[in-house]
User: Fold Transcription factor MYB51 from Hibiscus syriacus.
Amino acid sequence: MVRTPCCDKTGLRKGTWTPEEDRKLTAYVTRYGCWNWRQLPKYAGLARCGKSCRLRWLNYLRPNIKRGNFSRKEEETIIRLHESLGNRWSAIAAELPGRTDNEVKNHWHTTLKKRFKQKSSTPKDGKDKNEDPEIQGTKLNNNANRLVISSPNPPLILESSLSSPQPASSNQNSSITADTNTVESRRLDPVSDNNLFEAYEADSGSFWTEPFFSDSYDTWSDMWAEFPLLDDEVLYPFGFYELEGFNL
DNA sequence: AACATTCCCAACCGCCAAATC
DNA sequence: GGATTTGGCGGTTGGGAATGT
Assistant:
């Protein structure tokens, strides 16, 4: 079987995402969902591979992402699950709300593996700088101050009963499921395509309370002001506006 | 201060499985 | 049922920041 590349390699940007690209992706996905990662960059105005967009969204821009240092409890969970599951990072991350498989994997390779090795070789040697999470926690994490759990954004009222954090496993986040039977939340917002938002809320738990856009925007209106809606015919070439959710 | 080394993490790559045609 | 497309996953790497010399 011959696989076609996930994207046309020509003319596509690679490497670090710019704030502008982040805003474009965030604006598009939060409004229209991730209905097709391959097509998404084209309609979102991004010169990126769909896979790259997906990864960026899931590992960085997605709501409910918990950033910063791992707690002792989280590290114990990782170690325990790694013993039983091996390198199944997505499964491990699923047990750590707000953590992504990539982050868990990185933390394992950079910190926990060494600590684990060291403990197994010299059980009483506790001089490793990484051994004490409290000490480790004092190290400045590049992203630690970028996203923290914050209070709900004033313009948004969330009545959802779906308060439990969603697993970080990407396979539970990447597609919008529109099980409207479970959606109880309603958003008081001028944006009218409630189906999409409801679907997203169902998928994202406390999405509307999350701070990702509060770094840049005070309200959704501010963000839409910066990213005015494009023509729906352009954004919705397949006319799935009428569809329930994004299970395409 | 300048350079070298280490550490950390965001992002890419390639493979696989499920879904779709 | 086979071909193709798409999403998901784990391994790996490049580059910037931190630290050491």
Summary: DSSP finds ten helices and no strands in chain A. Residues 1-4, 6, 15-16, 36-38, 50-51, 54, 58, 87-90, 101-102, 105, 109, 139-140, 142, 169-171, 174-175 of chain A lie near DNA strand C (CB under 10 Å from a C1').
